[in-house]
Protein backbone atom coordinates (compact mmCIF):
# COMPACT_ATOMS: atom_id res chain seq x y z
CA UNK A 1 0.00 0.00 0.00
CA UNK A 2 1.41 3.29 -1.07
CA UNK A 3 1.02 6.26 1.28
CA UNK A 4 1.09 9.67 -0.37
CA UNK A 5 2.23 12.70 1.60
CA UNK A 6 -0.08 15.65 1.12
CA UNK A 7 1.64 18.69 -0.33
CA UNK A 8 1.78 21.76 1.93
CA UNK A 9 -1.02 24.23 1.50
CA UNK A 10 0.20 27.47 -0.11
CA UNK A 11 -1.44 30.54 1.32
CA UNK A 12 -2.41 33.47 -0.87
CA UNK A 13 0.33 36.07 -1.16
CA UNK A 14 -1.58 38.60 0.91
CA UNK A 15 -1.63 36.22 3.87
CA UNK A 16 1.98 35.18 3.67
CA UNK A 17 4.41 36.57 6.27
CA UNK A 18 7.49 38.25 4.90
CA UNK A 19 10.69 36.35 5.53
CA UNK A 20 12.34 37.38 8.73
CA UNK A 21 15.72 38.98 8.31
CA UNK A 22 18.07 39.48 11.16
CA UNK A 23 19.28 43.06 11.28
CA UNK A 24 22.97 43.28 11.88
CA UNK A 25 23.77 46.33 14.03
CA UNK A 26 26.77 48.28 12.95
CA UNK A 27 29.39 48.81 15.62
CA UNK A 28 29.20 52.25 17.22
CA UNK A 29 31.79 54.83 16.25
CA UNK A 30 34.55 55.57 18.71
CA UNK A 31 36.59 58.73 19.38
CA UNK A 32 39.48 57.06 17.58
CA UNK A 33 37.65 57.47 14.27
CA UNK A 34 37.60 60.83 12.40
CA UNK A 35 33.87 60.52 11.72
CA UNK A 36 33.22 60.67 15.47
CA UNK A 37 34.89 64.09 15.74
CA UNK A 38 33.24 65.30 12.55
CA UNK A 39 29.95 64.63 14.30
CA UNK A 40 31.10 66.69 17.29
CA UNK A 41 32.08 69.63 15.05
CA UNK A 42 28.78 69.44 13.19
CA UNK A 43 26.90 69.39 16.51
CA UNK A 44 28.78 72.45 17.83
CA UNK A 45 28.24 74.45 14.64
CA UNK A 46 24.55 73.53 14.48
CA UNK A 47 24.04 74.52 18.12
CA UNK A 48 25.86 77.83 17.57
CA UNK A 49 23.76 78.63 14.52
CA UNK A 50 20.56 77.80 16.35
CA UNK A 51 21.69 79.76 19.40
CA UNK A 52 22.61 82.80 17.30
CA UNK A 53 19.26 82.81 15.51
CA UNK A 54 17.42 82.40 18.81
CA UNK A 55 19.48 85.19 20.36
CA UNK A 56 18.90 87.66 17.51
CA UNK A 57 15.18 86.94 17.15
CA UNK A 58 14.08 86.41 20.76
CA UNK A 59 16.63 86.10 23.55
CA UNK A 60 18.34 89.45 22.90
CA UNK A 61 15.01 91.30 22.81
CA UNK A 62 13.90 89.71 26.09
CA UNK A 63 17.25 90.56 27.67
CA UNK A 64 16.95 94.17 26.48
CA UNK A 65 13.39 94.49 27.81
CA UNK A 66 14.45 93.13 31.20
CA UNK A 67 17.45 95.49 31.33
CA UNK A 68 15.24 98.47 30.50
CA UNK A 69 12.85 97.64 33.34
CA UNK A 70 15.71 97.40 35.82
CA UNK A 71 17.36 100.60 34.55
CA UNK A 72 14.09 102.51 34.74
CA UNK A 73 13.64 101.57 38.39
CA UNK A 74 17.25 102.58 39.15
CA UNK A 75 16.80 105.90 37.34
CA UNK A 76 13.57 106.68 39.20
CA UNK A 77 15.32 106.09 42.51
CA UNK A 78 18.31 108.27 41.60
CA UNK A 79 16.05 111.08 40.36
CA UNK A 80 13.99 110.93 43.55
CA UNK A 81 17.13 111.06 45.68
CA UNK A 82 18.73 113.75 43.47
CA UNK A 83 21.78 111.53 42.92
CA UNK A 84 21.43 111.17 39.15
CA UNK A 85 24.68 112.26 37.44
CA UNK A 86 24.62 115.67 35.77
CA UNK A 87 28.01 115.48 34.15
CA UNK A 88 31.03 113.25 33.73
CA UNK A 89 31.39 113.05 37.52
CA UNK A 90 28.79 111.76 39.96
CA UNK A 91 27.72 113.40 43.21
CA UNK A 92 30.80 111.94 44.95
CA UNK A 93 33.16 113.52 42.44
CA UNK A 94 34.22 110.29 40.72
CA UNK A 95 33.73 109.26 37.10
CA UNK A 96 30.25 107.93 36.38
CA UNK A 97 30.61 104.13 35.98
CA UNK A 98 29.72 102.55 32.67
CA UNK A 99 26.18 101.20 32.64
CA UNK A 100 24.80 103.83 35.04
CA UNK A 101 21.32 105.00 33.93
CA UNK A 102 21.36 108.76 33.37
CA UNK A 103 18.22 109.66 31.41
CA UNK A 104 15.30 108.75 29.17
CA UNK A 105 15.23 109.31 25.40
CA UNK A 106 11.77 109.78 23.90
CA UNK A 107 10.93 110.07 20.18
CA UNK A 108 7.32 109.79 19.01
CA UNK A 109 6.55 110.31 15.32
CA UNK A 110 4.38 108.55 12.77
CA UNK A 111 7.22 106.19 11.83
CA UNK A 112 9.45 106.15 14.92
CA UNK A 113 8.53 105.26 18.49
CA UNK A 114 11.40 105.21 20.97
CA UNK A 115 11.17 105.30 24.77
CA UNK A 116 14.51 104.15 26.12
CA UNK A 117 16.56 104.60 29.27
CA UNK A 118 20.11 105.43 28.21
CA UNK A 119 23.23 104.69 30.20
CA UNK A 120 26.78 105.93 30.50
CA UNK A 121 29.25 104.32 28.09
CA UNK A 122 29.21 103.03 24.53
CA UNK A 123 31.12 99.72 24.53
CA UNK A 124 29.47 96.65 23.04
CA UNK A 125 28.76 95.19 26.47
CA UNK A 126 27.13 98.40 27.73
CA UNK A 127 24.94 98.81 24.63
CA UNK A 128 23.28 95.44 25.22
CA UNK A 129 21.10 97.18 27.84
CA UNK A 130 20.04 100.12 25.67
CA UNK A 131 21.33 103.39 24.19
CA UNK A 132 24.62 104.66 25.58
CA UNK A 133 25.98 108.17 26.18
CA UNK A 134 29.51 108.78 24.92
CA UNK A 135 31.51 109.65 28.00
CA UNK A 136 33.53 112.52 26.54
CA UNK A 137 30.45 114.56 25.53
CA UNK A 138 28.15 116.77 27.59
CA UNK A 139 24.89 115.50 29.01
CA UNK A 140 21.77 116.09 26.88
CA UNK A 141 20.33 119.54 27.43
CA UNK A 142 23.69 121.17 28.15
CA UNK A 143 25.83 123.49 26.06
CA UNK A 144 27.76 121.57 23.41
CA UNK A 145 27.18 118.34 21.50
CA UNK A 146 25.85 115.27 23.31
CA UNK A 147 26.21 111.91 21.55
CA UNK A 148 23.98 108.88 22.10
CA UNK A 149 24.64 105.53 20.39
CA UNK A 150 22.45 102.42 20.16
CA UNK A 151 22.15 99.17 18.26
CA UNK A 152 20.27 98.86 14.99
CA UNK A 153 19.03 95.25 15.07
CA UNK A 154 20.31 93.21 18.02
CA UNK A 155 19.16 93.46 21.64
CA UNK A 156 15.80 94.94 20.72
CA UNK A 157 17.26 97.26 18.05
CA UNK A 158 16.48 100.54 19.89
CA UNK A 159 17.61 102.67 16.92
CA UNK A 160 16.36 100.34 14.21
CA UNK A 161 14.02 102.92 12.62
CA UNK A 162 16.17 105.98 13.16
CA UNK A 163 16.51 106.54 9.41
CA UNK A 164 12.80 107.38 9.24
CA UNK A 165 13.33 110.62 11.19
CA UNK A 166 12.89 113.82 9.21
CA UNK A 167 13.85 117.46 9.76
CA UNK A 168 11.41 119.04 12.18
CA UNK A 169 10.80 115.91 14.29
CA UNK A 170 11.05 116.49 18.03
CA UNK A 171 13.23 114.57 20.47
CA UNK A 172 12.77 114.78 24.25
CA UNK A 173 15.45 113.81 26.73
CA UNK A 174 14.82 113.63 30.47
CA UNK A 175 17.77 113.81 32.89
CA UNK A 176 18.36 114.97 36.44
CA UNK A 177 18.25 118.57 35.15
CA UNK A 178 14.79 118.25 33.64
CA UNK A 179 13.43 117.81 30.12
CA UNK A 180 15.47 118.98 27.11
CA UNK A 181 13.83 119.35 23.69
CA UNK A 182 15.62 118.93 20.38
CA UNK A 183 14.50 119.41 16.79
CA UNK A 184 15.97 117.24 14.05
CA UNK A 185 17.65 119.25 11.29
CA UNK A 186 19.76 116.67 9.49
CA UNK A 187 20.09 112.99 8.59
CA UNK A 188 23.53 112.04 7.26
CA UNK A 189 25.58 108.98 6.45
CA UNK A 190 29.21 108.23 7.04
CA UNK A 191 31.45 110.45 4.91
CA UNK A 192 28.90 113.22 4.35
CA UNK A 193 29.53 116.82 5.38
CA UNK A 194 29.42 117.61 9.09
CA UNK A 195 27.00 120.28 10.35
CA UNK A 196 28.26 123.74 11.15
CA UNK A 197 30.13 124.26 14.40
CA UNK A 198 28.07 125.33 17.41
CA UNK A 199 28.10 128.89 18.62
CA UNK A 200 28.46 129.77 22.29
CA UNK A 201 25.36 128.98 24.31
CA UNK A 202 23.98 126.40 21.83
CA UNK A 203 23.36 122.68 22.28
CA UNK A 204 23.09 119.75 19.91
CA UNK A 205 22.17 116.07 20.10
CA UNK A 206 23.71 113.47 17.79
CA UNK A 207 22.20 109.99 17.55
CA UNK A 208 24.37 107.29 15.96
CA UNK A 209 23.59 103.74 14.85
CA UNK A 210 24.53 101.31 12.10
CA UNK A 211 23.41 102.07 8.55
CA UNK A 212 22.28 99.61 5.90
CA UNK A 213 20.59 96.23 6.23
CA UNK A 214 20.27 94.68 9.70
CA UNK A 215 23.42 92.71 10.62
CA UNK A 216 25.00 93.83 7.32
CA UNK A 217 26.08 97.40 8.12
CA UNK A 218 27.25 99.78 5.43
CA UNK A 219 28.69 102.41 7.76
CA UNK A 220 27.01 104.62 10.34
CA UNK A 221 23.86 106.74 10.38
CA UNK A 222 23.86 110.11 12.17
CA UNK A 223 20.83 112.14 13.27
CA UNK A 224 21.60 115.78 14.12
CA UNK A 225 19.18 117.76 16.28
CA UNK A 226 19.47 121.27 17.72
CA UNK A 227 18.49 122.20 21.25
CA UNK A 228 15.27 124.28 21.19
CA UNK A 229 14.72 124.44 24.96
CA UNK A 230 16.74 126.41 27.47
CA UNK A 231 20.39 125.44 27.86
CA UNK A 232 20.98 123.76 31.21
CA UNK A 233 23.94 124.29 33.49
CA UNK A 234 27.00 122.60 32.02
CA UNK A 235 29.71 121.24 34.36
CA UNK A 236 33.31 121.57 33.26
CA UNK A 237 34.46 118.43 31.35
CA UNK A 238 37.18 116.22 32.76
CA UNK A 239 37.34 113.73 29.86
CA UNK A 240 38.24 114.31 26.21
CA UNK A 241 37.92 112.01 23.21
CA UNK A 242 41.63 111.20 23.41
CA UNK A 243 41.10 109.16 26.59
CA UNK A 244 38.33 107.01 25.14
CA UNK A 245 39.19 103.41 24.40
CA UNK A 246 38.81 102.08 20.87
CA UNK A 247 35.90 99.92 22.08
CA UNK A 248 33.84 103.06 22.78
CA UNK A 249 33.96 104.32 19.20
CA UNK A 250 31.16 103.71 16.70
CA UNK A 251 31.16 100.24 15.06
CA UNK A 252 33.93 98.97 17.36
CA UNK A 253 34.15 95.59 19.08
CA UNK A 254 34.76 95.06 22.79
CA UNK A 255 37.90 92.96 23.49
CA UNK A 256 36.70 92.30 27.04
CA UNK A 257 34.21 89.85 25.54
CA UNK A 258 36.90 87.30 24.66
CA UNK A 259 37.10 85.74 28.12
CA UNK A 260 33.36 85.04 28.60
CA UNK A 261 33.13 83.89 24.98
CA UNK A 262 35.91 81.34 25.46
CA UNK A 263 34.38 80.20 28.76
CA UNK A 264 30.94 79.49 27.28
CA UNK A 265 32.47 78.01 24.11
CA UNK A 266 34.45 75.50 26.18
CA UNK A 267 31.30 74.45 28.03
CA UNK A 268 29.49 74.06 24.71
CA UNK A 269 32.26 71.87 23.27
CA UNK A 270 32.31 69.66 26.39
CA UNK A 271 28.52 69.28 26.17
CA UNK A 272 28.78 68.40 22.46
CA UNK A 273 31.43 65.73 23.14
CA UNK A 274 29.28 64.26 25.91
CA UNK A 275 26.25 64.27 23.61
CA UNK A 276 28.20 62.44 20.89
CA UNK A 277 29.38 59.84 23.39
CA UNK A 278 25.86 59.27 24.71
CA UNK A 279 24.49 59.05 21.16
CA UNK A 280 26.81 56.12 20.38
CA UNK A 281 25.19 54.18 23.23
CA UNK A 282 21.60 55.42 23.31
CA UNK A 283 19.01 56.06 20.63
CA UNK A 284 18.72 59.34 18.79
CA UNK A 285 15.50 60.50 20.45
CA UNK A 286 16.64 59.60 23.96
CA UNK A 287 19.84 61.56 23.41
CA UNK A 288 18.01 64.57 21.90
CA UNK A 289 15.62 64.73 24.86
CA UNK A 290 18.55 65.25 27.21
CA UNK A 291 20.96 67.17 24.96
CA UNK A 292 18.75 69.86 23.39
CA UNK A 293 17.82 71.60 26.68
CA UNK A 294 21.55 71.75 27.48
CA UNK A 295 23.09 72.60 24.11
CA UNK A 296 20.68 75.38 23.09
CA UNK A 297 21.11 77.51 26.27
CA UNK A 298 24.89 77.04 26.12
CA UNK A 299 24.89 78.08 22.46
CA UNK A 300 22.75 81.13 23.28
CA UNK A 301 25.12 82.10 26.10
CA UNK A 302 28.10 81.73 23.77
CA UNK A 303 26.36 83.87 21.14
CA UNK A 304 25.50 86.48 23.77
CA UNK A 305 29.14 86.75 24.84
CA UNK A 306 30.38 86.77 21.26
CA UNK A 307 28.03 89.62 20.34
CA UNK A 308 30.19 92.03 22.34
CA UNK A 309 33.11 91.20 20.03
CA UNK A 310 31.13 92.35 17.00
CA UNK A 311 30.54 96.04 16.07
CA UNK A 312 28.72 97.70 18.95
CA UNK A 313 25.99 99.23 16.75
CA UNK A 314 24.77 96.05 15.02
Molecular structure report:
- With 314 residues, this protein is α+β, with helices and mostly antiparallel strands.
- It has a domain at 57-256: Beta Barrel (Sortase, Chain: A).
- The chain has three helices and eight strands.
- Helix content is 30%, strand content 21%.
- Helix 1 (34-80) crosses helix 3 (284-307) and helix 2 (258-279) packs antiparallel against helix 3.
What is the CATH topology descriptor of the domain at 57-256? Sortase, Chain: A
State the order of secondary-structure elements, H for helix, E for strand.
Answer: HEEEEEEEEHH
Helix/strand-derived category reads alpha+beta
Fraction in helix = 25-40%
User: Rg, please?
Assistant: 30 Å
Largest sheet: 8 strands, mixed, barrel
- State the CATH architecture of the domain at 57-256: Beta Barrel
Could you write a compact summary of the structure shown?
This protein has 314 residues and is α+β, with helices and mostly antiparallel strands. The chain has helices at 34-80, 258-279, 284-307, and strands spanning 101-108, 113-120, 132-133, 144-149, 170-175, 178-189, 203-213, 216-227. It has a domain at 57-256: Sortase, Chain: A (Beta Barrel).
Amino acid sequence: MTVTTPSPVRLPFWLRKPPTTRRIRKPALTPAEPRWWIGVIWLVLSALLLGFVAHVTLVGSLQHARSQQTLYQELRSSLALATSPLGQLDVDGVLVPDGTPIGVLSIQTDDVSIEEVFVQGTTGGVLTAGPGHRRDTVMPGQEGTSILMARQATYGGPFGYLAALEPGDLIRVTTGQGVAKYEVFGVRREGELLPQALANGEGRLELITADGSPLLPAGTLHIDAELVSSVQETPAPVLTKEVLSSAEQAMAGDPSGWLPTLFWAQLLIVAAVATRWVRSRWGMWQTATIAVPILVPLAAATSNAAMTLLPNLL
